[in-house]
Each structure stands twice: as structure tokens, then as C-alpha cells.
């Protein structure tokens, strides 16, 4: 059962005109990194927009980092209007390759069927006990704007608008999101008062 923690942080999520100050301190990210650092030869997969701060941070903390911008893949498929295009083929990695996966708010940009497909593929490419970090907006935030989540050494996160990306959101209640992301199992959930939730999930 997920442990729910509410955190009061002021900066709004998903607004193009927001200030570039630190948005919040990521409890889920700290747990994610601290657990994965304990695994020998740890390897993680970042599915968010390319962000140099994140590459540098994980380069210091984790043995191997793979980056695959699924947001750009999804935007390209949507722009080309290719119905049924298997965008998730970009997740065709060997089974049990990664110790952790950063999904960020990708599920918010997917239909239930596509989010379920992404979760199944993440489950397949995770090692047993591997972790997945997810961010999700609340129903107060329905922006099509896409942000990169730029991290610092203290696991502070700054939203960085990606002006070349625009993806419609699908906002879900936490229980519905967890159902879509099965068979990944919740470890802990944090709710920030800036319209953002963080979820840490595990392959059991």
C-alpha cells in the first residue's frame, strides 16, 4: 500500500510564464537515487526531455544512464497523425536491463491504453526490485505545456518549459493512475500543493 505524504510548496506546475526558481524538493527522487545507488553496476533510463543538469547529476551518482526522450517521440507521432503508430517501440530494450526508470509525467500525456502499454514495457525491462518514478498533475493543472524536470544535487527540481512540445493532458485520480500503471506496485506517493504528485513504484 502506498504511503501518502502531503507537502506544501508554492511554485505552480505547467505554466509557461512561471519563474525559473526551484519548484520543489523531490522526496521521491531522493528515495529513488538512494535505493538504486545500493545496487552494483546500477543502470537507469530517463524517458524525459534531454536535460544537461540531470545527465551531469546521474553521471556522478549512477554507473550508467540511458536517455530516451519519449515526449518528442510522442509529439512526432501525434503531429503526423498516425493512428496506431507503435510509438512505444522506442521502449524495446532487452528484458531486465534497468535498475530504475524515470517516467516523469509521461503517463499524463497518454491514453489509458498507451499508459498501460508503457507500464508493461517498463515492467519487462526492469530488473526485479527495480524502481520507477512518476510525476502526475492534479485536476487543477490541465496545461498542454511540457516541462523538463531539471534537478540539482539536493534533489531540488526546477520546471523548464519545452516550447517545441505541446501534448494534451489526461488527468487521473491517484487510484486510477495506479490501476493504469499495473503491474508496477506503489511504494510511496507524495502530493505537493502546486498541482503535482510524485509516485514511486516497484517491480516486485
Walkthrough of the structure:
There is one protein chain. Mean pLDDT is 84; it is low at 1-20. The chain has helices at residues 27-36, 52-61, 70-80, 112-125, 174-180, and strands at 3-7, 24-25, 43-46, 64-67, 98-104, 126-137, 145-151, 156-166, 185-192, 196-202. It has a single domain (3-202), classed as Vaccinia Virus protein VP39 (Rossmann fold, 3-Layer(aba) Sandwich). By secondary structure, it is an alpha/beta fold. Helices cover 25% and strands 33% of the residues. Strands 1-9-10-6-5-3-4 form a seven-stranded mixed sheet. The protein is globular and about 40 Å long. Strand 5 (98-104), helix 4 and strand 6 (126-137) form a beta-alpha-beta unit.
Write the layout of secondary structure elements.
Blueprint: E1 3-7, E2 24-25, H1 27-36, E3 43-46, H2 52-61, E4 64-67, H3 70-80, E5 98-104, H4 112-125, E6 126-137, E7 145-151, E8 156-166, H5 174-180, E9 185-192, E10 196-202
Parallel strand pairs: 1-9, 3-4, 3-5, 5-6
Antiparallel strand pairs: 2-8, 6-10, 7-8, 9-10
Write out key terms for the chains shown:
single chain; seven-stranded mixed beta sheet; 33% strand; Rossmann fold; 204 residues; 25% helix; three-stranded antiparallel beta sheet; 10 strands; alpha/beta
- The dominant shape is globular
Enumerate the strands of the largest sheet in spatial order, edge to edge or round the barrel.
1-9-10-6-5-3-4
Number of helices: 5
Q: CATH homologous superfamily name? A: Vaccinia Virus protein VP39
Helix/strand/pairing class, anyone?
Answer: alpha/beta
Which percent range fits the helix content?
Answer: 25-40%
Mean pLDDT: 84
Q: What's the Cα radius of gyration?
A: 16 Å
Amino acid at each position: 500500500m502506498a504511503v501518502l505524504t502531503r507537502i506544501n510548496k508554492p511554485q505552480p506546475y505547467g505554466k509557461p510564464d512561471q519563474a525559473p526558481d526551484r519548484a520543489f524538493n523531490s522526496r521521491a527522487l531522493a528515495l529513488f537515487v538512494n535505493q538504486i545507488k545500493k545496487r552494483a553496476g546500477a543502470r537507469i533510463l530517463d524517458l524525459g526531455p534531454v536535460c544537461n543538469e540531470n545527465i551531469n547529476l546521474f553521471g556522478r551518482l549512477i554507473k550508467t544512464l540511458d536517455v530516451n526522450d519519449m515526449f518528442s517521440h510522442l509529439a512526432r507521432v501525434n503531429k503526423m497523425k498516425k493512428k496506431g503508430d507503435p510509438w512505444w517501440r522506442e521502449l524495446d530494450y532487452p528484458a531486465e536491463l534497468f535498475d530504475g526508470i524515470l517516467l516523469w509525467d509521461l503517463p499524463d500525456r497518454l491514453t489509458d491504453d498507451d499508459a498501460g502499454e508503457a507500464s508493461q514495457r517498463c515492467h519487462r525491462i526492469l530488473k526485479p526490485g527495480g524502481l520507477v518514478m512518476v510525476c502526475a498533475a492534479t485536476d487543477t493543472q490541465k496545461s498542454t505545456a511540457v516541462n523538463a524536470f531539471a534537478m540539482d544535487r539536493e534533489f531540488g527540481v526546477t520546471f523548464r518549459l519545452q516550447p517545441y512540445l505541446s501534448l494534451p493532458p489526461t488527468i487521473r485520480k491517484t487510484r486510477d493512475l495506479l490501476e493504469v500503471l499495473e503491474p508496477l506496485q506503489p511504494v510511496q506517493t507524495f502530493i505537493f500543493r502546486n498541482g503535482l504528485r510524485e509516485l514511486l513504484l516497484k517491480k516486485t
